[in-house]
Amino acid sequence: MQTMSEAVLSTDLPLKGRRQGKVRDIYQCETKSGQPALLIIASDRVSAFDVVMRNGIPGKGVMLTKISTFWFDMIAEHFKGQLEHHLISTDPADVAGLTDEQVDQLRGRVMVGRRAKVVPIECVVRGYLAGSGWKEYQKSQSVCGVPLPVGLTQCDKLPEPIFTPATKEDEGHDENISFETACELVGEPLMTKLKTLSLDIYKMAHDYAKQRGIILADTKFEFGIPIDGGDEPILIDEALTPDSSRFWPADQYKPGQDQPSFDKQIVRNYLQELVDAGRWNKMPPGLELPNEVVTKTLNKYQQAFDELTGS
Description:
The protein is of the alpha+beta class and 311 residues long. It folds into two domains: 9-114, Phosphorylase Kinase, domain 1; 118-263, D-amino Acid Aminotransferase, Chain A, domain 1 (2-Layer Sandwich), CATH 3.30.470. It is built from seven helices and 17 strands. The strands form four sheets. Strands 6, 9, 10, 13, 14, 15, 16 and 17 form an eight-stranded mixed β-sheet that branches. A hairpin with a 2-residue loop joins strand 11 (142-143) and strand 12 (146-147). The longest helix is centred in the middle third of the chain and has 24 residues, at 188-211. Mean pLDDT is 94; it is low at 1-5.
């Protein structure tokens, strides 16, 4: 396991178009074969309450990349002829213009992907009533305009998975919207296709994870239209990681309460204790996470990978 000093918190590469999100650094690049691509780097940064912490989770980016790659391979096989994804390679040595030292720093934490025009909608699928969906249901007995049965409790399994899109915001929280609003933003034919694809991927992944003793409560997907030809949407960004999904251990599942999860909930809980004690206000700058929180969080990501893949 990496030490704190080995956490990759930022990159500075001699490539064009550098963008930095909460977790990922993205560059425009070309493969050594000359194909235009994006270099997507999963750093070890960790954010909570939309604030990036001062230190990271060493090895977290590698775990996220391994999990995404596993799911991309499964999706490609399961939806062959129906859906393509952006992933070209996970080897930084395939990228033109990087030194051997840079390749070594990035190894295990990159996805080289096809360039695409991003559809500005988060395609969220919920199979259980948790998070913002539970809060919305308590007010309206619906989620994103989808009516739900009366009397559901927190984390209940829904009769059927539901598609609940959200706006894709560069800063701050994404905003839940109705399917009709999403259609107005990007067009009904495209949204209908993305809804079907998202639900189908979720059902496939949920059934697989259940066999491994894990509940996939909800997840979000991103799609784009490839700029290298064709008008069919492809799956981009990450897929079914603990950063984009809620994974719960099936043997501990109890409706009516929060569930233990395979993600950074340990970080959120630690920070919430500081908020409750008046020691932080959920505003930047981020805080320094203690080693115990860092280690426990990485172990959760590792456990998710081990149980999902059997590796």
